[in-house]
Specification:
The complex is a heterodimer of chains A (371) and B (151). With 371 residues, chain A is an alpha+beta fold. Chain A contains 15 helices and eight strands. The longest helix of chain A has 29 residues. Classes of the chains: A alpha+beta (371), B alpha/beta (151).
Chain lengths: 371, 151
Amino acid sequence: MFEEVATSKEGEQIINVGPQHPATHGVLHLIITLNGETIVNLEPNLGYIHRSIEKMCESLSYRQFIYTTSRMDYLAAHINNHACALTVEKAMQIEIPERAEVIRILVSELTRIASHELWWGAMAMDLGALSPFFYAFREREVITDIMEETCGARLTMNYMVPGGVMADIHPNFVKRVKDFIIQFKSRIDEYDQLVTGNIIFQNRMKNVGILSKEDAISYGTTGPTARGSGVSCDIRKIYPYSIYGKLQFDEVLETAGDSFARYLVRVKEMKQSISIIEQLIDNIPEGDFQAKTKAVLKLPKGEFYQRVETPRGELGVYIVSEGGTTPYRIKFRSPGFSNLSALNHMIKGHKIGDLVAVMGTLDLVIPDIDR
Amino acid sequence: MGNEELILKLKEVFPEMDCVQGNDWPELSFGSDRLIDVITYLKQTPELAFDYLFCETCVDWKTHFNMVYHLDSTRYRHNVVLKVKTDREKPEIASLAHVYRTAEQHEREIFDLFGIVFLGHPNLKRIMLTEEWVGYPLRKDYEDPINIIKL
């Protein structure tokens, strides 16, 4: 009556998770080989939201291509835009005003908190706890409201342009961010009370999906995924860009390498981001928010690479220029793509029920993987 | 190791190869037959220890392909860029999947979009596009019947 889609060995069966599955948070398709309940092999099948952004960018100007990158990792649109703007500025040697730098870092760190909030709520929801999702959105809504006021958008902001930011911050920005800091600090402890200390949650997360330090490097994992395995890989610390070199914050490292370690890294990172925002919010320098640039940008002939730290890990922008107004070739090294490649190694030998506990801590955003 | 020191070291070990200072990092260019030698040396020499391949991609120069490898050392935090020239008519190059496991998925993407065959790759098939797709979209001579930008 039905066709066997894939062939399996004696005693093994193949099931498909996704592309339409709530725990994949998008259109990710995983082909899983099972022996009883144990996962023998897992193969991701990508491309359901592949828009070939790299090809599109080849026919877009250096002002236009930044807008496509908001659609890659849509939870960190600011940081993707920042990476592209930095690459163009590096190539053209544009000095950007101090005010623009500070605004950029402020919105980037707010984005990082918003992204980790969404991950935290969705992670707990995947494991069967629905209330954390509403707690997370309570704080995240405040950030998206602040963004809406300043950038005019809640998700795909397109706020950063080569030379600075598109418009000055809204007059309410400083006050609302300060209110948010107070609100967030009084509520972050609720997160630990609600989820982190929960014994059911800990039992599902500890010793699950272990990734050793060597494997984390070999698989090219970055961001909280690698830092949970003790790999120091925060680009803001090791190759400081923008004004991160002047700021005081800690790189959060855990050594256990399991799902719980990755969870702890992200929760602690939110506190670090708040501390960065606190350092800057009272010290936004006066001045221009954008440097004066030509209407048509022309990059010199050559190759330019910029690495930045997104909430998911290292994003690399590689531009090959032939001296014209459009890039000859552009490559986005997305963090999710590499993090996903470690999933098969992490999940082998575990029960299928552990899949969401491991996949959740990779914090996958599918448009970021597919591009 | 600083960039100048790294360039001196690479010039000493691989005198026949072209080693220049790029915009950020030293760039080493060579033919595809030497890839495994260079990678093995860079990864296994204790004072270099390039253990992290953070970007692997390809550029179509119309006459040939350039495979571009960005390497980083998590111990010393120095970087190097490898540019490997590959034939356009018969694009074949050794796979690095057994050296850096991240290469496995990156190479599948490059095979999918550029059509470069990675010799020794454990699972070389299309990753983004469907199996029936004709052509390799990121090549410069690929004509897209429905191009959203040019419409």
